[in-house]
Amino acid sequence: MGLPVFQQRLSKYIDGGCFTRRDRFFSLISKSIPLHLHKKKMVREFLRRLKTAPNESPNRKKVKVKVNVYQGSNPHVLEMMEFLSGHLSEDLLGAYVHGSLGTYEEINYSDFDALVILKNEVLQDASRLAKAARRLINARKIMLRMDPLQHHSWFVLTQSDLSDYPQTFFPHELFTYAKSLLPDRGGELEIAFDPGIQDYYQPFKNLLRSIRDKLDLKRPRNLYQLKGLLSQVMLLPALYCQARDRKGIFKKYSFQEARKNFTAREWEVLDEISSIRQTWHVHLSLMVKFILTRSTVFSRLFAVHFGPSIPRDLAQQLDDVFYNRVDSLISLFIHKLFKPLEQELHRE
User: What is the mean pLDDT of residues 251-278?
Assistant: First the structure.
Protein backbone atom coordinates (compact mmCIF):
# COMPACT_ATOMS: atom_id res chain seq x y z
CA MET A 1 0.00 0.00 0.00
CA GLY A 2 1.35 3.39 -0.99
CA LEU A 3 4.45 1.97 -2.64
CA PRO A 4 5.82 2.80 -6.12
CA VAL A 5 6.25 -0.11 -8.51
CA PHE A 6 9.94 -0.74 -7.80
CA GLN A 7 9.44 -0.95 -4.04
CA GLN A 8 6.54 -3.34 -4.59
CA ARG A 9 8.75 -5.56 -6.73
CA LEU A 10 11.61 -5.35 -4.25
CA SER A 11 9.31 -6.38 -1.40
CA LYS A 12 8.12 -9.32 -3.49
CA TYR A 13 11.71 -10.25 -4.30
CA ILE A 14 12.71 -10.22 -0.61
CA ASP A 15 9.60 -12.30 0.09
CA GLY A 16 10.87 -15.10 -2.16
CA GLY A 17 11.31 -13.70 -5.65
CA CYS A 18 8.24 -15.49 -7.01
CA PHE A 19 6.80 -13.29 -9.75
CA THR A 20 5.41 -16.08 -11.96
CA ARG A 21 4.06 -19.62 -11.69
CA ARG A 22 7.41 -20.85 -12.98
CA ASP A 23 9.13 -19.11 -10.07
CA ARG A 24 6.79 -20.81 -7.60
CA PHE A 25 7.55 -24.19 -9.17
CA PHE A 26 11.31 -23.62 -8.97
CA SER A 27 11.00 -22.45 -5.37
CA LEU A 28 9.69 -25.92 -4.45
CA ILE A 29 13.07 -27.26 -5.59
CA SER A 30 15.12 -24.52 -3.95
CA LYS A 31 14.22 -21.13 -2.49
CA SER A 32 17.37 -19.71 -4.09
CA ILE A 33 16.39 -20.38 -7.72
CA PRO A 34 13.83 -17.54 -8.13
CA LEU A 35 16.21 -15.15 -6.37
CA HIS A 36 19.01 -15.95 -8.82
CA LEU A 37 16.67 -15.78 -11.81
CA HIS A 38 15.68 -12.19 -11.02
CA LYS A 39 18.68 -10.73 -9.19
CA LYS A 40 20.27 -8.97 -12.19
CA LYS A 41 16.95 -7.53 -13.31
CA MET A 42 16.33 -6.14 -9.82
CA VAL A 43 19.73 -4.44 -9.87
CA ARG A 44 19.06 -2.94 -13.31
CA GLU A 45 15.70 -1.63 -12.12
CA PHE A 46 17.31 -0.08 -9.05
CA LEU A 47 20.07 1.62 -11.05
CA ARG A 48 17.51 2.92 -13.56
CA ARG A 49 15.46 4.27 -10.70
CA LEU A 50 18.47 6.10 -9.24
CA LYS A 51 19.20 7.74 -12.61
CA THR A 52 15.61 8.87 -13.12
CA ALA A 53 15.07 10.10 -9.56
CA PRO A 54 13.43 13.55 -9.57
CA ASN A 55 15.41 16.62 -8.58
CA GLU A 56 15.07 17.79 -5.01
CA SER A 57 11.71 19.47 -4.55
CA PRO A 58 11.65 22.97 -2.96
CA ASN A 59 8.66 21.76 -0.92
CA ARG A 60 10.52 18.80 0.47
CA LYS A 61 10.10 18.30 4.20
CA LYS A 62 12.94 16.91 6.30
CA VAL A 63 12.20 14.98 9.46
CA LYS A 64 14.54 13.46 12.03
CA VAL A 65 13.19 10.52 13.98
CA LYS A 66 14.80 8.86 16.96
CA VAL A 67 14.58 5.09 17.33
CA ASN A 68 15.77 3.34 20.47
CA VAL A 69 17.19 -0.17 20.52
CA TYR A 70 14.77 -2.93 21.53
CA GLN A 71 15.04 -3.60 25.28
CA GLY A 72 12.17 -6.06 25.72
CA SER A 73 12.23 -9.75 26.56
CA ASN A 74 10.25 -11.35 23.72
CA PRO A 75 12.35 -14.43 22.79
CA HIS A 76 11.48 -14.19 19.08
CA VAL A 77 12.59 -10.57 18.86
CA LEU A 78 15.81 -11.37 20.71
CA GLU A 79 16.44 -14.28 18.34
CA MET A 80 15.81 -11.99 15.36
CA MET A 81 18.26 -9.42 16.73
CA GLU A 82 20.93 -12.06 17.08
CA PHE A 83 20.28 -13.41 13.57
CA LEU A 84 20.35 -10.00 11.86
CA SER A 85 23.47 -8.91 13.74
CA GLY A 86 25.26 -12.12 12.81
CA HIS A 87 24.17 -12.47 9.18
CA LEU A 88 22.93 -9.16 7.76
CA SER A 89 24.52 -6.32 9.71
CA GLU A 90 26.69 -5.26 6.75
CA ASP A 91 23.75 -5.22 4.34
CA LEU A 92 21.21 -3.26 6.40
CA LEU A 93 21.12 0.44 7.07
CA GLY A 94 18.51 -0.36 9.69
CA ALA A 95 16.06 -2.98 10.91
CA TYR A 96 13.08 -2.15 13.11
CA VAL A 97 10.30 -3.95 14.91
CA HIS A 98 7.06 -1.99 15.15
CA GLY A 99 3.42 -2.48 16.10
CA SER A 100 2.69 -4.07 19.47
CA LEU A 101 6.16 -5.64 19.65
CA GLY A 102 7.71 -2.21 19.32
CA THR A 103 5.75 -0.90 22.31
CA TYR A 104 6.13 -4.10 24.38
CA GLU A 105 2.36 -4.72 24.30
CA GLU A 106 2.17 -7.98 22.36
CA ILE A 107 -0.72 -10.40 22.90
CA ASN A 108 -1.56 -13.84 21.48
CA TYR A 109 -2.97 -12.23 18.33
CA SER A 110 0.18 -10.15 17.64
CA ASP A 111 2.31 -10.91 14.63
CA PHE A 112 5.90 -9.90 13.90
CA ASP A 113 5.84 -6.49 12.22
CA ALA A 114 9.32 -5.54 11.03
CA LEU A 115 10.93 -3.16 8.54
CA VAL A 116 14.38 -3.42 6.94
CA ILE A 117 16.24 -0.71 5.05
CA LEU A 118 18.73 -2.17 2.57
CA LYS A 119 21.92 -0.27 1.83
CA ASN A 120 22.23 1.07 -1.72
CA GLU A 121 25.40 -0.94 -2.29
CA VAL A 122 23.44 -4.17 -1.78
CA LEU A 123 21.05 -3.21 -4.61
CA GLN A 124 24.04 -2.59 -6.91
CA ASP A 125 25.49 -6.09 -6.53
CA ALA A 126 23.29 -8.91 -7.87
CA SER A 127 24.98 -11.72 -5.92
CA ARG A 128 24.96 -9.75 -2.70
CA LEU A 129 21.28 -8.87 -3.17
CA ALA A 130 20.31 -12.53 -3.71
CA LYS A 131 22.33 -13.57 -0.66
CA ALA A 132 20.71 -10.89 1.54
CA ALA A 133 17.25 -11.85 0.28
CA ARG A 134 17.87 -15.51 1.06
CA ARG A 135 18.92 -14.65 4.60
CA LEU A 136 15.86 -12.45 5.12
CA ILE A 137 13.69 -15.32 3.89
CA ASN A 138 15.37 -17.60 6.43
CA ALA A 139 14.80 -14.97 9.12
CA ARG A 140 11.09 -15.11 8.36
CA LYS A 141 11.04 -18.51 10.11
CA ILE A 142 11.53 -16.62 13.36
CA MET A 143 8.44 -14.54 12.58
CA LEU A 144 6.44 -17.68 11.85
CA ARG A 145 7.54 -19.38 15.05
CA MET A 146 5.97 -16.46 16.89
CA ASP A 147 2.84 -16.45 14.72
CA PRO A 148 2.36 -19.38 12.32
CA LEU A 149 -0.65 -17.57 10.83
CA GLN A 150 1.34 -14.47 9.89
CA HIS A 151 0.45 -13.24 6.39
CA HIS A 152 3.09 -10.67 5.60
CA SER A 153 6.85 -10.80 5.45
CA TRP A 154 9.27 -7.88 5.81
CA PHE A 155 8.41 -4.28 5.08
CA VAL A 156 11.28 -3.33 2.75
CA LEU A 157 12.84 0.02 1.87
CA THR A 158 16.21 1.09 0.46
CA GLN A 159 18.68 3.69 1.64
CA SER A 160 17.75 5.89 -1.34
CA ASP A 161 14.10 5.89 -0.23
CA LEU A 162 15.02 8.00 2.79
CA SER A 163 15.60 11.04 0.56
CA ASP A 164 12.34 10.49 -1.36
CA TYR A 165 10.39 8.80 1.38
CA PRO A 166 7.14 6.88 0.66
CA GLN A 167 5.29 8.49 3.57
CA THR A 168 2.01 6.65 2.99
CA PHE A 169 3.68 3.21 3.05
CA PHE A 170 5.37 3.47 6.45
CA PRO A 171 4.60 6.95 7.86
CA HIS A 172 7.57 8.48 9.64
CA GLU A 173 5.35 8.94 12.72
CA LEU A 174 5.48 5.16 13.25
CA PHE A 175 9.22 5.23 13.97
CA THR A 176 8.36 6.86 17.30
CA TYR A 177 6.83 3.54 18.35
CA ALA A 178 9.42 1.28 16.69
CA LYS A 179 12.59 -0.25 18.11
CA SER A 180 15.87 -1.05 16.40
CA LEU A 181 16.66 -4.72 15.87
CA LEU A 182 20.34 -3.91 15.39
CA PRO A 183 21.96 -3.11 18.75
CA ASP A 184 24.43 -0.67 17.16
CA ARG A 185 21.87 1.16 14.97
CA GLY A 186 19.74 3.06 17.42
CA GLY A 187 19.60 6.84 17.26
CA GLU A 188 18.43 9.35 14.68
CA LEU A 189 17.17 8.63 11.20
CA GLU A 190 16.73 11.48 8.70
CA ILE A 191 13.84 11.28 6.24
CA ALA A 192 12.83 13.68 3.46
CA PHE A 193 9.63 13.76 1.42
CA ASP A 194 7.34 16.13 -0.46
CA PRO A 195 3.94 16.18 1.31
CA GLY A 196 2.31 17.64 -1.78
CA ILE A 197 2.88 14.58 -3.95
CA GLN A 198 1.90 11.93 -1.39
CA ASP A 199 -1.34 10.10 -2.23
CA TYR A 200 -2.83 9.63 1.22
CA TYR A 201 -6.03 8.15 -0.22
CA GLN A 202 -4.56 5.29 -2.27
CA PRO A 203 -3.54 2.98 0.63
CA PHE A 204 -7.03 3.35 2.10
CA LYS A 205 -8.67 2.56 -1.26
CA ASN A 206 -6.38 -0.45 -1.78
CA LEU A 207 -7.30 -1.80 1.64
CA LEU A 208 -11.02 -1.33 1.02
CA ARG A 209 -10.75 -3.14 -2.30
CA SER A 210 -8.87 -6.06 -0.72
CA ILE A 211 -11.42 -6.47 2.10
CA ARG A 212 -14.34 -6.23 -0.31
CA ASP A 213 -12.76 -8.87 -2.56
CA LYS A 214 -12.49 -11.25 0.39
CA LEU A 215 -16.08 -10.63 1.42
CA ASP A 216 -17.43 -10.97 -2.12
CA LEU A 217 -15.61 -14.18 -2.99
CA LYS A 218 -16.13 -16.33 0.08
CA ARG A 219 -16.22 -16.29 3.85
CA PRO A 220 -13.03 -17.34 5.70
CA ARG A 221 -12.85 -21.13 5.88
CA ASN A 222 -9.96 -21.46 8.31
CA LEU A 223 -8.02 -19.43 10.89
CA TYR A 224 -5.39 -18.28 8.41
CA GLN A 225 -8.02 -16.75 6.14
CA LEU A 226 -9.92 -15.35 9.11
CA LYS A 227 -6.92 -13.65 10.66
CA GLY A 228 -6.02 -12.12 7.30
CA LEU A 229 -9.46 -10.58 6.97
CA LEU A 230 -9.79 -9.40 10.58
CA SER A 231 -6.31 -7.85 10.53
CA GLN A 232 -7.20 -5.85 7.45
CA VAL A 233 -10.45 -4.63 8.97
CA MET A 234 -8.53 -3.57 12.10
CA LEU A 235 -6.22 -1.51 9.88
CA LEU A 236 -9.12 0.56 8.50
CA PRO A 237 -9.08 3.21 11.28
CA ALA A 238 -5.36 3.95 10.78
CA LEU A 239 -5.57 4.35 7.01
CA TYR A 240 -8.85 6.27 7.35
CA CYS A 241 -7.20 8.77 9.70
CA GLN A 242 -4.12 8.93 7.47
CA ALA A 243 -6.28 9.86 4.47
CA ARG A 244 -8.48 12.22 6.48
CA ASP A 245 -5.66 14.08 8.24
CA ARG A 246 -2.89 13.64 5.61
CA LYS A 247 -0.43 12.27 8.15
CA GLY A 248 0.45 8.94 9.68
CA ILE A 249 -0.94 7.65 12.96
CA PHE A 250 0.00 4.74 15.16
CA LYS A 251 -2.61 2.01 14.83
CA LYS A 252 -3.31 1.83 18.57
CA TYR A 253 -4.39 5.49 18.68
CA SER A 254 -6.25 5.46 15.38
CA PHE A 255 -9.30 3.76 16.91
CA GLN A 256 -9.95 6.62 19.31
CA GLU A 257 -9.40 9.23 16.58
CA ALA A 258 -11.46 7.50 13.88
CA ARG A 259 -14.45 6.64 16.05
CA LYS A 260 -15.08 10.36 16.60
CA ASN A 261 -16.77 10.30 13.19
CA PHE A 262 -18.97 7.28 14.01
CA THR A 263 -21.83 6.52 16.35
CA ALA A 264 -21.45 3.80 18.99
CA ARG A 265 -23.74 1.54 16.98
CA GLU A 266 -21.82 2.08 13.74
CA TRP A 267 -18.54 1.26 15.51
CA GLU A 268 -19.90 -1.82 17.30
CA VAL A 269 -18.54 -4.42 14.87
CA LEU A 270 -14.99 -3.09 15.31
CA ASP A 271 -15.38 -3.40 19.07
CA GLU A 272 -16.37 -7.04 18.54
CA ILE A 273 -13.31 -7.68 16.41
CA SER A 274 -11.13 -6.01 19.05
CA SER A 275 -12.60 -8.41 21.61
CA ILE A 276 -11.83 -11.39 19.37
CA ARG A 277 -8.26 -10.11 19.05
CA GLN A 278 -7.87 -9.83 22.83
CA THR A 279 -9.13 -13.38 23.48
CA TRP A 280 -7.40 -14.98 20.48
CA HIS A 281 -6.09 -18.46 21.16
CA VAL A 282 -4.87 -20.94 18.54
CA HIS A 283 -4.05 -24.57 19.17
CA LEU A 284 -1.99 -26.24 16.43
CA SER A 285 -0.95 -29.86 16.15
CA LEU A 286 2.78 -30.49 15.92
CA MET A 287 2.47 -31.45 12.24
CA VAL A 288 0.47 -28.34 11.27
CA LYS A 289 2.82 -26.13 13.27
CA PHE A 290 5.83 -27.71 11.56
CA ILE A 291 4.37 -27.01 8.10
CA LEU A 292 3.23 -23.47 8.83
CA THR A 293 6.56 -22.39 10.28
CA ARG A 294 8.44 -23.26 7.09
CA SER A 295 9.25 -20.18 5.01
CA THR A 296 8.22 -21.78 1.71
CA VAL A 297 5.59 -21.40 -1.01
CA PHE A 298 4.18 -24.79 -0.04
CA SER A 299 3.61 -23.74 3.59
CA ARG A 300 1.66 -20.67 2.45
CA LEU A 301 -0.47 -22.69 0.06
CA PHE A 302 -1.13 -25.14 2.88
CA ALA A 303 -2.11 -22.29 5.22
CA VAL A 304 -4.51 -20.78 2.67
CA HIS A 305 -6.26 -24.01 1.71
CA PHE A 306 -5.77 -26.34 4.68
CA GLY A 307 -5.13 -24.03 7.62
CA PRO A 308 -6.43 -24.88 11.09
CA SER A 309 -10.21 -24.78 11.35
CA ILE A 310 -12.08 -21.96 13.08
CA PRO A 311 -13.26 -23.04 16.56
CA ARG A 312 -16.97 -23.80 16.61
CA ASP A 313 -17.94 -21.07 19.10
CA LEU A 314 -16.07 -18.44 17.07
CA ALA A 315 -17.52 -19.71 13.79
CA GLN A 316 -21.02 -19.36 15.23
CA GLN A 317 -20.27 -15.77 16.23
CA LEU A 318 -18.94 -14.92 12.77
CA ASP A 319 -22.08 -15.70 10.80
CA ASP A 320 -23.43 -14.05 7.65
CA VAL A 321 -24.95 -11.25 9.71
CA PHE A 322 -21.50 -10.43 11.11
CA TYR A 323 -19.88 -10.24 7.66
CA ASN A 324 -22.75 -8.14 6.34
CA ARG A 325 -22.11 -5.71 9.19
CA VAL A 326 -18.43 -5.58 8.24
CA ASP A 327 -19.46 -4.77 4.68
CA SER A 328 -21.77 -2.03 5.96
CA LEU A 329 -18.92 -0.61 8.03
CA ILE A 330 -16.77 -0.36 4.90
CA SER A 331 -19.53 1.59 3.18
CA LEU A 332 -19.64 3.95 6.15
CA PHE A 333 -15.87 4.51 6.03
CA ILE A 334 -16.14 5.36 2.33
CA HIS A 335 -19.06 7.72 2.91
CA LYS A 336 -17.49 9.53 5.86
CA LEU A 337 -14.15 10.03 4.13
CA PHE A 338 -15.22 10.98 0.63
CA LYS A 339 -18.54 12.77 1.26
CA PRO A 340 -16.84 15.88 2.73
CA LEU A 341 -14.46 15.90 -0.26
CA GLU A 342 -17.38 15.73 -2.69
CA GLN A 343 -19.12 18.60 -0.88
CA GLU A 344 -15.97 20.70 -0.97
CA LEU A 345 -15.51 20.11 -4.70
CA HIS A 346 -19.18 20.94 -5.27
CA ARG A 347 -18.82 24.28 -3.43
CA GLU A 348 -15.84 25.15 -5.61
Answer: 96
